[in-house]
TrEMBL record:
<protein>
    <recommendedName>
        <fullName>Clp R domain-containing protein</fullName>
    </recommendedName>
</protein>
<dbReference type="Pfam" id="PF02861">
    <property type="entry name" value="Clp_N"/>
</dbReference>
<dbReference type="InterPro" id="IPR004176">
    <property type="entry name" value="Clp_R_N"/>
</dbReference>
<keyword id="KW-0677">Repeat</keyword>
<dbReference type="InterPro" id="IPR036628">
    <property type="entry name" value="Clp_N_dom_sf"/>
</dbReference>
<feature type="domain" description="Clp R">
    <location>
        <begin position="2"/>
        <end position="188"/>
    </location>
</feature>
């Protein structure tokens, strides 16, 4: 499938690996792909993000992703579902961090340098996102998978990256409107 990726999409994937390595994490996940998308300039994906007002708000996105990692990778929807069952996730995180230190529940935590310089495997979610980007490209009758298809896949799949993007007005519908609808969408 990688042969169908454009130069920009390949740069996102290799950038995600770089983010994973710099964070000293074991596996490349969807959040790494989102951060790599935010690194891009002069691509269709970066155009869509800028059109929706996300340009210059990287630190907010990083903060939101870090907060989700602190919650053990659970989205706010997951936390609300637990609350509905009488489980206070905030209290659990506080108690665990009190006993084991800040960030004790952080997903992907540091690998402690155990992993040498080599290929980083992708999580199941990251692999599924790449597959979804192919489906989206085919649905739009695009011959190649671009970084815009990766962005669309991020917004289409449930989870923390889609939640963070939606919080900043970047939804599947808004990105589709910017890229394929002929008009600029405004962030909500």
């Amino acid at each position: 499938m990688f042969e169908r990726f454009t130069k920009d999409a390949r740069a996102v994937v290799t950038g995600a690996v770089g983010h994973c390595e710099r964070a000293r994490e074991e596996k490349v996940d969807e959040a790494h792909l989102l951060l790599a998308l935010l690194d891009r300039e002069a691509s269709r994906g970066s155009f869509a993000l800028a059109s929706l007002g996300l340009a210059g708000r990287r630190s907010e996105v990083e903060r939101d992703l870090a907060e989700a990692r602190r919650r053990g990778g659970l989205s706010r929807a997951d936390a609300e579902a637990l609350t509905g069952l009488g489980i206070d996730l905030t209290e659990i995180v506080s108690r665990v961090e009190e006993a084991h230190g800040a960030g004790a529940l952080a997903v992907g935590g540091t690998g402690g340098g155990r992993r040498g310089a080599g290929r980083r495997p992708f999580t199941r979610g990251a692999k599924d996102l790449l597959t979804e980007s192919l489906r989206i490209a085919v649905a739009h009758r695009d011959r190649h998978i671009g970084d815009e298809h990766l962005l669309l896949a991020l917004t289409a799949r449930p989870g923390v990256p889609a939640e963070v993007l939606a919080d900043h007005g970047v939804t599947y519908e808004a990105v589709t409107r910017v890229l394929y609808g002929g008009g600029a969408a405004k962030a909500g």
